[in-house]
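Give me the fold.
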Amino acid sequence: MKIGFRRMLPEDAEGVEKVEKSCFSMPWSRQSFWEEAAKEDACYLLAVDEEGGSEQIIGYAGMWLVFGEGQITNVALLPKYRGRRIAGLLLKKMIETAKIKDISSITLEVRPSNEKAIRLYEKFGFKSVGRRPHYYLDNNEDAEIMWLIF
């Protein structure tokens, strides 16, 4: 397995949509990813498996960049690639990108039931600051609000 990372382009929307559908009960549409990739105030990075000389999109992370702050929208990885530290590498690259763009802090929401994700975010210094009640529409679960301040 040879993993690479690169910026998402609008033409990657179909591959990103496949990852999205494998990870989330209420996935974003292909059109949404096409639009996000085209925005100047958004940063979407892909994880790609480059084995065999071709590229397969296996994961992505997205962040909006607004008024000096970053908002992580999603971190997703195809199930068969989980547990290989790829999500951590994606998150590390997002943080590096934020710093390069003079972002002073990053926030995100995560399901409290997603303990693996919370542990990952905590490894990178994110701290829980509260909850958004009934945030997730599919099951009415709260969202844990986490911040990383540089």
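The mean pLDDT is 94.
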